TrEMBL record, chains A, B:
The record marks 17 as: Catalytically relevant. Residues 34-94, 100-149 form the CBS domain. Homotetramer. Coiled coil: none annotated. Belongs to the SIS family. GutQ/KpsF subfamily. It comes from the Bacteria. This is Arabinose 5-phosphate isomerase. It comes from Kangiella geojedonensis. The chain holds residues 175 to 323 of 326 of the full protein.
Length: 149, 149
């Protein structure tokens, strides 16, 4: 990346902040910071809103991915989506597929953390689904994972 | 700040990112980036959960402050708090004071944006209430406001 070409290192970011190491992680790769396996929040399209919320709370990322039987990404459901669904009058037994956001913003595991932050900013979101070359989810990354000291 | 002492300028941050100007705002002050007046989400303790959600959606920060009659900060209610309250079985007519988080993390308007990011990271939150010397709320700032190009 240009950042690396300019000779920036994670330590430059670390040293540049009086509070310590804010930004230390920005030149790491998404795969080094993402939540995988049992820490990746995922439900099926038929999961009830009620059970999807338990998954969101359990995995602590403020959202859950919705995956089909072949583990392909169908959509995402965030705390903000819950609020909007709740305002419309939500039934806790509704399958999540009827209220999820279809698609969902993704990034690859080999991307730089700084580029994940940029993608989040451009979309005003705080979490990304991490996908492989076949567009299959392999994890998720939160803004906090990218900026934390 | 040490950042300024080291000769860092907002333009250094801007130039350091290939995608453009990520971090351009980090040396600005919170007061330059915060949401004030009619863009600051605030409700009274007696406001129903239902009406508090409308305020959150309307002001687009994913939370609302709860202020008493003298405009002092009593608490905050976020999208994450909504999820947790919803899991317990929430009544939309409940006054917000019974489900809000008492207190709420704050910062002053003269703080640097980079320090607001640090405070958010240390607390795993995405929004801060901005208060004056008398601890009265004057606005709010979201992580997105601090990092946006
Ligand atoms: N200025 C603030 C901001 C938040 N809070 C409180 O801090 C707690 C966590 O804030 P949140 O915004 O609800 O944080 C969440 C949460 O549910 O805890 C939201 C969620 O979408 C996701 O962003 C996760 C992170 O993934 C970290 O787990 O974090 C809440 O009780 C909130 O009232 C606070 O006291 N002062
Ligand atoms: N990887 C992602 C992440 C999110 N989204 C979608 O993008 C929309 C916005 O995401 P959000 O997480 O709900 O974003 C919120 C929102 O309610 O829009 C949450 C809220 O707490 C607060 O953080 C505000 C910001 O203040 C910006 O308005 O942003 C949602 O429909 C969500 O499904 C997506 O498609 N892909």
């Amino acid at each position: 990346s240009l950042l690396e070409a300019k000779g920036f290192t994670p330590d430059d970011f670390a040293l540049s902040h009086p509070g310590g190491s804010l930004g230390k992680r920005l030149l790491l790769h998404v795969e080094d910071l993402m939540h995988t396996a049992e820490n990746f929040p995922a439900v099926t399209p038929q999961t009830s809103v009620k059970d999807a919320l338990l998954e969101i709370t359990d995995k602590r990322l403020g959202m859950t991915a919705v995956l089909d039987g072949n583990k392909h990404l169908l959509g995402i459901f965030t705390d903000g989506d819950l609020r909007r669904a709740f305002e419309k009058g939500i039934n806790v037994d509704t399958p999540i597929e009827s209220v999820m956001t279809t698609g969902g913003k993704t990034i690859t595991a080999d991307a730089l953390a700084v580029d994940a932050v940029g993608l989040m900013e451009r979309n005003s979101i705080t979490c990304l689904i991490v996908v492989d070359e076949q567009n299959k989810p392999v994890g998720a990354v939160h803004m906090h994972d990218l900026l934390k000291a």
